[in-house]
Amino acid sequence: MRLAVWTSYSRIPRSSLVRLFAAYLVKMIKTKDRTPCPFGSYYEFGTGWGGTLAAFMLAAEQIASTHDLTADDFRVFAFDTFEGLPPSAHPADRHAAWREGAMASSVDVIRQKIATHPFARRVPVQYIKGTFEESLTDALIERLRPFPPTRND
Ligand SMILES: C[S@@+](CC[C@H](N)C(=O)[O-])C[C@H]1O[C@@H](n2cnc3c(N)ncnc32)[C@H](O)[C@@H]1O
């Protein structure tokens, strides 16, 4: 499965991430009658190369196969500059590896990776490009209001 190769760059072992996401999804299924949040929304702030997103897709595929769901029961909102780290003057961001543009990926790279996997390519994905500060606008909140994030703690 090519998606498995795609996730291999993540620092957290892929299988742990997939298990974590799968457990959250099962919890969402169990609580879906007690929450206004529709099942299956995944917000990722800092999509990077898509390693974590791939783990979510593998978990979604697993849960879909065991709970009679389809790719359309999930939706992804991927937030990133898709040009790497933005500039920062914050003292906590002073780090040799954290220069402007580091960790750059692109929407095309993520799309190409998703296209290699039959389940993932059917999951609706919205790419929200820009710094979080720029892209998290009131207009976007209104657009996403039908899909509020669920807390899973
Ligand atoms: C460590 S990478 C994420 C890795 C990713 N989760 C994965 O599994 O491949 C951090 C990402 O956050 C993005 N990022 C960091 N600060 C940001 C900001 N203020 N606004 C938008 N994107 C930001 C960077 O562009 C980079 O792609």
How would you sum up this structure, described in words?
It is a single chain. By secondary structure, the protein is an alpha/beta fold. The chain has a single domain (2-144), classed as Vaccinia Virus protein VP39 (Rossmann fold, 3-Layer(aba) Sandwich), CATH 3.40.50.150. Helices cover 39% and strands 10% of the residues. It has six helices and three strands. A three-stranded parallel β-sheet has the order 1-2-3, with no helix packed on it. The protein is globular, with a radius of gyration of 16 Å. The chain binds S-adenosylmethionine (SAM). S-adenosylmethionine is lined by residues 10, 46-52, 80-81, 84-86, 103, 105, 131-132.
Class by alpha and beta content: alpha/beta
Run of helices and strands: HHEHEHEHH
CATH homologous superfamily classification? Vaccinia Virus protein VP39
CATH-derived architecture: 3-Layer(aba) Sandwich
Low-confidence stretches: none
**CATH class categorisation:** Alpha Beta
